[in-house]
Write a structure and sequence with these properties.
Radius of gyration: 16 Å
Order of helices and strands: HHHHHH
Number of helices: 6
Number of domains: 1
Shape: globular
Distance between the termini: 28 Å
Length: about 140
């Protein structure tokens, strides 16, 4: 049996996502891989956590039970200030619009697109784009 570490709170679930994003991003940037498949595992995990976080931070298309900045009261016990909304949600909405659909199509289904329009992912740029959002989130909602 395999399992991820237990989560102590809803906030801890988001911390897990940010930790895994950072781990996979650094592994992609700094590691050499014995086989291409080793790199593919890190890339797919990076993209999954990136997509999850842009959706949490952006508040876009959240369902009732999703952790989302659209309803921070449900998991943080308080709403977001206008300043937090500008630093987190507004910035994340741009990344969500830029990447969510592309990542979903790349990962979720075996589609013709995966062959016809295969693409590369600039992990360094993506990390640079999301890092200020994560930092603002960590300040607003400490672990």
């Amino acid at each position: 049996m395999y399992s991820r570490r237990p989560k102590e709170s809803h906030r801890d679930t988001i911390a897990y996502e940010t930790d895994m994003l950072g781990f996979c991003g650094q592994a992609l940037i700094t590691s050499e891989y014995p086989t291409p498949e080793d790199m593919y595992v890190y890339l797919e995990a990076f993209l999954l956590h990136y997509r999850n976080l842009t959706r949490v931070f952006s508040g876009e298309n959240h369902r009732r039970d999703d952790l989302s900045t659209a309803d921070a009261v449900a998991w943080a016990g308080r709403g977001m200030t206008p300043e937090e909304t500008a630093l987190i949600r507004t910035r994340a909405q741009e990344l969500d619009a830029k990447y969510f659909e592309q990542i979903s199509k790349y990962l979720q289904h075996c589609t013709q697109l995966r062959h016809d329009h295969d693409r590369g992912w600039d992990v360094k740029i993506m990390l640079n784009e999301i890092s200020p959002i994560i930092e603002a989130f960590e300040l607003a909602f400490p672990r």
